# Entry
Amino acid sequence: MSLTLAQLNAAVPAEAVALLDGVYEHSPWIAQRALPARPFRTLAHLKHALVKALAASSADEQIGLIRAHPELAGKAMVSKTLTAESTNEQSKAGLTDCTPEEFARIQQLNADYNAKFGFPFILAVRGPRGTGLAKREIIDTFARRLHNHPSFELGEALRNIHRIAEIRLNDKFAADITLGNDVWDWQEELSVHTDPATPRRASSPSPT
# Structure
């Protein structure tokens, strides 16, 4: 049965935190700090309160949140110690069914990324629709982001964590995201009509 805002608003703090368990990986303190914003009027209101709670946290807490996430196709997946949420996400992206070559490539990227940044690579692997990105897209994104500046990559990690949390909340509350998917489709359809490579011609001089 899906969770409702009425249930969340009526719950005592400890119960409310438990109801939001798993939204932010192994980090119940974010939900705890968002609860004073109750009663939540909409799911968007709840999401905003959680984002504000994380934004107000310390740099050490934010790094701790990032480090609480498992590596993609990493040791936790192999040992089957991922959270249910992470297992679902990595499975939808096909990361639980990598070829030996894909698995070796991801392991090398994990090692290189951790050595450079000191925290695991974070990507919302369920993608814009929540159905999962292609493995090739995940690997290409992983390789590209390895070249980012550490401060930029910290921001990317947090941005993707918020996207992961949004998808998990949608699942918990059985949110209808049909309109969002429609907007995404419209944007994709409109984008094929753009032609930024064609320069605009200068106007011809007016006859005198």
